[in-house]
Amino acid sequence: MGDHSHGSPNDPGTVAKAGPGTLEAFQDPGLPPHRKRLADVDPRAAKRAERQVALLFVISIIGTLSFFIAYFGLGRSESIAEIRTQNMMLGLGTAFAMLGIGVGIVHWARALMPDHEIAESRHEIRPEKDRADAESMIGEIIEETGIKRRPLIRNTLIGAIALAPIPAIFMFRDLDRTGATAGSIVERLRHTMWDTGMKLTRDPSGTPIKASDVQLGSAFHVIPEGLMDTEDPLNEKAKAVVLLMRLDPEKMTISPGREDWHYNGIVAYSKICTHVGCPVALYEQQTHHLLCPCHQSTFDLTQECKVIFGPAGHALPQLPITVDSEGFLVARSDFQEPVGPSYWERG
């Protein structure tokens, strides 16, 4: 028989249980005592912290101004050394512009804004009273930030925030150097240099391609004839580059109106992924799938490059093609829809 002096068959006594009145002995300890910071008790420390926050905002302003100096002052040279210097200054200027604001706000909150903890009980939802309470809370928050009584912080913060977004505006505007309006930019993106009768040529050699060169399962990276002779070949290529492949016509699903867009199973599709514009470069011969290596968007070649996996928004645009009298592959027209990512305006 075991020793049951400290328990019983139903209660072995191995676990201590709270007896009557025990719970009253455990009271809510409440919040720990608030420890004041140096800036809370020493006006000189508070003033010093205020100057530090303002200095960080000024650093942000200087970073933005450095961006403008590099952008406008060093942007006219074609020297590799100066281009590298410009890129470094652009990056550093943007970094200091963002870091100055971020670190300044954090230091402001840690050193000057009230840091005492509070606990509030839940209450009934009363729309009118809650609205008044919300207005009161917003007023208290503004008062606690000290922004009204600290004009040095307020003014430098306004200057930093006002200047910080301007570099982004110039950088996005610089994507187009022709001075065109936004509408004409979108219209220019809607079209490529492909035109009726333009030969399909190998990338990058520019050698024309005959239909007899394209075998079942083969894939060619293709550019328009004469691309390298244009004023801006890289931008033209970014819009016009296509993939050329040959399928068994019996395996192809062809939409009404596209019956003559291929030649004996030879098809051409835009190489620009419709997700974010990465080059679709991987062709799975057995499954007839095209794969974008950036985010794994997958297009089914037998279904007119319909999206079957991944984040791409729509199928790859098809380039209508045929052959000329010499047997070379040529375009019937430009793409019938805009190429590129789904966030472009599309018609």
From TrEMBL:
Domain of life: Bacteria
Entry-linked Pfam families: QcrA_N, Rieske
Transmembrane segments: 53-74, 89-109
Localisation: Cell membrane
Span list, region Disordered: 1-37
Annotated Rieske domain residues: 266-330
Principal localisation: membrane
Topology term for the membrane: Multi-pass membrane protein
Alphabetized SUPFAM superfamilies for the sequence: ISP domain (SSF50022)
Keywords: 2Fe-2S, Cell membrane, Disulfide bond, Electron transport, Iron, Iron-sulfur, Membrane, Metal-binding, Oxidoreductase, Respiratory chain, Transmembrane, Transmembrane helix, Transport
Functional summary from the UniProt entry: Iron-sulfur subunit of the cytochrome bc1 complex, an essential component of the respiratory electron transport chain required for ATP synthesis. The bc1 complex catalyzes the oxidation of menaquinol and the reduction of cytochrome c in the respiratory chain. The bc1 complex operates through a Q-cycle mechanism that couples electron transfer to generation of the proton gradient that drives ATP synthesis.
Family stated for the protein in its record: Belongs to the Rieske iron-sulfur protein family.
Protein known as: Cytochrome bc1 complex Rieske iron-sulfur subunit
Organism name: Arthrobacter halodurans
Lineage of the organism: Bacteria, Bacillati, Actinomycetota, Actinomycetes, Micrococcales
